[in-house]
Amino acid sequence: MRIAYFTHSLASCWNHGNAHFLRGVLRELMASGHDVAAYEPEGAWSLENLLRDHGAAGLDAYRAAYPELASDRYAAIDAVVERVADSDLVLVHEWSDPALVAALGRARRRGARYTLLFHDTHHRAVSAPEEMSRFDLSGYDGVLAFGETLAAVYRAQGWGRRAFVWHEAADTRLFHPPAEELPDLTRAPPSPFAGEGGPRRGSGRDVVPQGGSDGAGYGSAFTSGEVPAEAALPSPPLLRRVPSPAEEGGSAPAGLIWIGNWGDDERSAELETYLFRPAAEVGLPLDIYGVRYPASALATLKRYGARYHGWAANAAAPGLFARHLATVHVPRRFYVERLPGIPTIRVFEALACGIPLVCAPWDDAEGLFRPGGDYLVARTGAEMEGHLRALRADPGLRRALAASGLATIRARHTCAHRAEELLTIAASLRAPATLEATA
Predict the structure, then answer these.
(1) For helices 415-429 and 18-31, what crossing angle results, to 10°?
(2) 307, 282 in Cβ contact below 8 A?
(3) pLDDT category of residue 338 using cuts at 50, 70 and 90
(4) Which residues, other chains included, contact 278 with Cβ-Cβ below 8 Å and sequence gap of 6+?
(5) How far is residue 372's CA from residue 273's CA, in Å, rounded to a whole number?
(6) pLDDT digits 0-9 by tens, 218-237
(7) Looking at the chain, which residues constitute the CATH 3.40.50.2000 domain(s)?
(8) Minimal CA–CA distance to 69: which of 34, 118, 36?
(9) How far is CA 392 from its chain centroid?
(10) For the whole model, what pTM was predicted?
(11) Which residues pair with 329 in a beta bridge?
(12) For 414, which DSSP code?
């Protein structure tokens, strides 16, 4: 199949969290034998900022990790629309010029043979609907939304069964634990959920072991790093091996790491409540990576003793995770209040790399994971402090969380899974009844 994907940037991950998933899915499609082409506009904001801050060397990590990937840059919209005319499947990301979105839709209405899909991985449909109204999707065959609550927004706009849920996922060819720390996936020991009736999915309730500040109380759910039954799966091929800190002459993993951009004050208070203050109270060193931190944010980090390192290439994240004890997920407010159930890429990244994860309040409304098994959930800042103390004190807890989260990723949430889902969606839209219904 000839597949074309229009993205803001394939090469740059500067303030561009979708780069991880996009690169992983395109690579999986190529590995399956499909002819894949990626297109990005000249002067893409993300790439321009990356080059301004880091020069051409800022692209080195991407090129080393994804040697098979490349993108064609375009300036003229009509010309690039013509270039994809012989494609079988065309996907357009929501961070695209509305003029490009409209031009591809017009071409489809006029008889272009490809299936045309709009890919939405942001909260603007609810946070800035006036911006999304600029996109003319009248010629599109369907919408790919990265969560059920977002797909519901499109269904309410008349898309019906043509609004599909297509979650992000981890590129496990690159995002995986250090090789010598991988759990034994050839056996299926008893699940840490044994005796609890199994994890509760989609109930809106998290299965959270209740531990005190010293970690007491976690042992009933986690015992010496047991691996859940889903772990009995073949591991994916690894193109790159992440060295352990010991291999590189470093010390054992220590402290917390948080990778994320500051953005537009969409979670400033939550970061202070669930990350900066708990880390300082517990006495865990905190390393911060990301961009767009204003002076006020940097002052906050300094006040809590956090170390700010600036931008880090997404491809470098597995190595950074390997040097730390745990990480924390603090979702943006819109994914808590308006679009629950959407974890964003950071959860997939952490679990795939086998680093223990603690989440600020977030409802896994779709049952993607096993809260309390794959990661811990802190409903208050005090609970976050308790979880962090427990993780520092209990290696068995850390091993159990890492193994459980990794098993869930490998069973359900890899880019290979999403590539298969995409092909299934495209095939369903090519069915005669569907084409007739959308004509």
Answers:
(1) 70
(2) no
(3) confident
(4) 378, 381, 384, 385, 388
(5) 20
(6) 643 333 333 333 333 333 33
(7) 2-169+416-438, 179-413
(8) 36
(9) 25
(10) 0.84
(11) 359
(12) B
